[in-house]
C-alpha cells in the first residue's frame, strides 16, 4: 500500500466516527455514582405496593341516582309565578365501598349510609370492565353505615375480591394506615398516613367514635376502606372537616361489623336501651361529687329499665359488668351493643356511696324519623323526630329534635347538628315534623332557596340559615 492510500484510509476513518452526544456522557456519569443502599426502605416500598395490589380488588365504586324536583324559575325570573311548578331531575352521586363477603352468588358490600340513602337506582363498578345493578340490604343513619349486595356471577376467583377485616379495638395512635377510594371519581386512589386520634366525636351522627387520620380523603372516598399495614380493613372512611386540612374520620370496623351483621340478618339495627339522659363528668362536676370519670344521670325516663332498676338523677355510672366507664360515649356504645333482655350490673356512685345496680337492658324504641325534610324537595341530609311530651315539659319548648345530620349534606353545611331543637321556620313556630315539612314546602313553592331557623342548642337559642338546594 502506498503512503498516499494509507493516509486516505486514515482520513476516512476519522470522518466516519461521530462524537458521542454531551447528554449521553452526562447520564453515563450519573449511572456510575454509587447507589444508596436503602434496603429497609426498598423492602417497605415493595410490601406497600403488594399490600395495595392485594386490597384494591375489594374496593368498588358506587353510583347512586336520586330523583329530585326543582323549579325552572330562579330568583332572577322577571315575572311572578302564580303556582308552584317543579320538574323532576336525576342527580347522581358517587362513593366507595368494600366487599366484605359472599353469600351464594352475591357480594356483600360495606359503605356509608349517606352514599346510598334515598337512591332510586344503584350501580356498582367492580372493576374497569364490570358494572352491575345493586340492591340495598339495609341502612343505619345513626352510625352512617349501609350494606348493599351485587351479583358475583361471572367474576373470576371471587373469593380474592373479599377484604380481610381487622380489629379496631387494638388500634393505637401513630400506626400507619392507607385509604383507598374514589375521590372525585378518580378510581382506586391510594393515600397514606397515620392514625391521628381515636374515639373522636365531631357532632354529625348520633353514635360517634371515629378514627381520625391524616391520610388524605376527599368527596368520593366515603364508604371506602381505611387499611392497616397488614392489609386489614380497620375503618370505613366517612367524613372530612371542610374547614380542616388533613383531617379525615372513619367508622371503626368493629362498630361497622356489628351494624352490618344486624342489617344483613334483620334488615335493621336493634339497640340496647336503659332509658337515661346522661352527661360527661366535667372538671367542675368532678370537684363537686368527687368522681373523675363516668357518666352522670340527668334524667330517667318513666317506665324505663333504668327507673325499674332504681337508678336516680345524680347517680354516676362508673362501670358496666366490671369494665370502667370513662365518659358518655363509652357508656352509650356499651349499652347500645348489648342485646335486649340481657341483665347488666352497673357500678354507681350515689352521694359518695358505691352501689351495684342490676338493670335488664331493653330495646331502644323506634323514633319517628325522616331522612329528608321534604318528600318533594332535594335531600337536606336531615333526620328529625317530634319531641315527646316529657321532653317538652323538661325543656320548656316545642319543636322538633335533630337526630341525625348527613356529613357534607345541606343541613350539615348550614351548621345543624344532632341534638339541636328546631323551634321555628321563617319565624313561624313549629311543633312537629309535619309542621317542619310544610314550612319547607311553603318556602320552596315561593322560589326560596333558604329558610331562617330558630334553633335551641344546649341552653341557648341561635339562628341558622338552612340552604334548601
TrEMBL record:
<dbReference type="InterPro" id="IPR051201">
    <property type="entry name" value="Chloro_Bact_Ser_Proteases"/>
</dbReference>
<dbReference type="InterPro" id="IPR036034">
    <property type="entry name" value="PDZ_sf"/>
</dbReference>
<feature type="active site" description="Charge relay system">
    <location>
        <position position="114"/>
    </location>
</feature>
<keyword id="KW-0732">Signal</keyword>
<keyword id="KW-0720">Serine protease</keyword>
<dbReference type="InterPro" id="IPR001940">
    <property type="entry name" value="Peptidase_S1C"/>
</dbReference>
<feature type="binding site">
    <location>
        <begin position="238"/>
        <end position="242"/>
    </location>
    <ligand>
        <name>substrate</name>
    </ligand>
</feature>
<dbReference type="GO" id="GO:0042597">
    <property type="term" value="C:periplasmic space"/>
</dbReference>
<keyword id="KW-0378">Hydrolase</keyword>
<dbReference type="GO" id="GO:0004252">
    <property type="term" value="F:serine-type endopeptidase activity"/>
</dbReference>
<dbReference type="Pfam" id="PF17820">
    <property type="entry name" value="PDZ_6"/>
</dbReference>
<keyword id="KW-0645">Protease</keyword>
<feature type="binding site">
    <location>
        <position position="144"/>
    </location>
    <ligand>
        <name>substrate</name>
    </ligand>
</feature>
<dbReference type="GO" id="GO:0006508">
    <property type="term" value="P:proteolysis"/>
</dbReference>
<dbReference type="InterPro" id="IPR011782">
    <property type="entry name" value="Pept_S1C_Do"/>
</dbReference>
<feature type="active site" description="Charge relay system">
    <location>
        <position position="144"/>
    </location>
</feature>
<dbReference type="InterPro" id="IPR001478">
    <property type="entry name" value="PDZ"/>
</dbReference>
<keyword id="KW-0574">Periplasm</keyword>
<feature type="binding site">
    <location>
        <begin position="220"/>
        <end position="222"/>
    </location>
    <ligand>
        <name>substrate</name>
    </ligand>
</feature>
<dbReference type="InterPro" id="IPR041489">
    <property type="entry name" value="PDZ_6"/>
</dbReference>
<protein>
    <submittedName>
        <fullName>Serine protease Do</fullName>
    </submittedName>
</protein>
<feature type="domain" description="PDZ">
    <location>
        <begin position="263"/>
        <end position="352"/>
    </location>
</feature>
<dbReference type="InterPro" id="IPR009003">
    <property type="entry name" value="Peptidase_S1_PA"/>
</dbReference>
<feature type="binding site">
    <location>
        <position position="114"/>
    </location>
    <ligand>
        <name>substrate</name>
    </ligand>
</feature>
<dbReference type="Pfam" id="PF13365">
    <property type="entry name" value="Trypsin_2"/>
</dbReference>
<dbReference type="Pfam" id="PF13180">
    <property type="entry name" value="PDZ_2"/>
</dbReference>
<feature type="domain" description="PDZ">
    <location>
        <begin position="368"/>
        <end position="458"/>
    </location>
</feature>
<feature type="active site" description="Charge relay system">
    <location>
        <position position="222"/>
    </location>
</feature>
<keyword id="KW-0677">Repeat</keyword>
Amino acid at each position: 500500500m502506498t503512503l498516499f492510500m494509507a493516509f486516505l484510509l486514515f482520513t476516512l476513518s476519522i470522518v466516519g466516527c461521530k462524537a458521542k452526544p454531551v447528554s449521553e456522557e452526562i447520564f453515563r456519569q450519573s449511572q456510575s455514582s454509587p447507589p444508596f443502599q436503602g434496603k429497609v426502605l426498598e423492602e417497605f416500598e415493595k410490601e406497600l405496593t403488594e399490600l395495595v395490589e392485594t386490597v384494591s380488588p375489594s374496593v368498588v365504586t358506587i353510583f347512586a341516582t336520586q330523583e329530585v324536583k326543582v323549579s325552572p324559575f330562579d330568583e332572577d325570573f322577571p315575572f311572578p309565578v302564580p303556582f308552584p311548578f317543579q320538574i323532576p331531575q336525576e342527580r347522581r352521586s358517587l362513593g366507595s365501598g368494600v366487599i366484605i363477603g359472599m353469600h351464594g352468588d352475591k357480594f356483600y358490600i360495606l359503605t356509608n349510609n349517606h352514599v346510598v340513602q334515598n337512591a332510586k337506582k344503584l350501580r356498582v363498578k367492580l372493576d374497569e370492565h364490570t358494572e352491575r345493578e345493586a340492591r340495598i340490604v339495609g341502612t343505619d343513619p345513626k352510625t352512617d353505615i349501609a350494606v348493599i349486595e351485587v351479583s358475583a356471577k361471572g367474576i373470576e376467583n371471587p373469593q380474592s375480591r373479599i377484604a380481610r377485616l381487622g380489629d379496631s379495638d387494638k388500634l393505637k395512635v401513630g400506626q400507619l394506615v392507607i385509604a383507598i377510594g374514589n375521590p372525585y371519581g378518580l378510581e382506586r386512589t391510594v393515600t397514606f398516613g397515620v392514625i391521628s386520634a381515636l374515639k373522636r366525636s365531631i357532632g354529625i351522627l348520633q353514635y360517634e367514635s371515629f378514627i381520625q387520620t391524616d391520610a388524605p380523603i376527599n368527596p368520593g372516598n366515603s364508604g371506602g376502606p381505611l387499611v392497616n399495614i397488614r392489609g386489614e380493613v380497620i375503618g370505613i372512611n366517612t367524613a372530612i372537616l371542610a374547614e380542616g386540612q388533613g383531617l379525615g374520620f372513619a367508622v371503626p370496623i368493629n362498630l361497622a361489623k356489628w351494624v352490618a351483621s344486624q342489617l344483613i340478618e334483620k334488615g335493621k339495627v336493634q339497640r340496647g336501651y336503659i332509658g337515661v339522659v346522661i352527661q360527661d363528668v366535667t372538671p367542675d362536676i368532678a370537684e363537686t361529687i368527687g368522681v373523675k370519670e363516668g357518666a352522670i344521670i340527668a334524667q330517667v325516663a318513666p317506665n324505663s329499665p333504668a327507673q325499674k332498676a332504681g337508678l336516680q338523677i345524680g347517680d354516676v355510672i362508673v362501670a358496666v359488668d366490671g369494665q370502667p366507664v370513662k365518659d358518655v360515649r363509652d357508656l352509650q356504645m356499651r349499652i347500645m351493643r348489648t342485646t335486649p333482655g340481657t341483665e347488666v350490673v352497673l357500678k354507681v356512685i350515689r352521694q359518695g356511696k358505691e352501689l351495684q345496680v342490676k338493670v335488664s337492658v331493653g330495646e331502644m324504641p323506634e323514633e319517628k324519623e325522616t331522612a329528608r325534610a321534604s318528600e318533594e324537595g332535594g335531600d337536606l341530609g336531615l333526620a328529625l323526630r317530634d319531641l315527646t311530651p316529657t321532653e317538652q315539659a323538661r325543656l320548656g319548648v316545642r319543636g322538633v329534635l335533630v337526630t341525625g345530620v348527613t356529613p357534607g349534606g345541606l343541613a350539615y353545611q348550614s351548621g345543624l347538628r344532632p341534638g339541636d331543637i328546631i323551634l321555628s321556620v321563617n319565624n313561624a313556630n313549629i311543633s312537629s315534623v309535619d309542621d317542619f315539612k310544610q314550612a319547607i314546602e311553603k318556602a320552596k313553592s315561593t322560589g326560596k332557596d333558604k329558610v331562617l331557623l330558630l334553633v335551641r342548642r344546649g341552653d341557648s337559642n341561635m339562628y341558622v340559615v338552612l340552604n334548601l338546594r
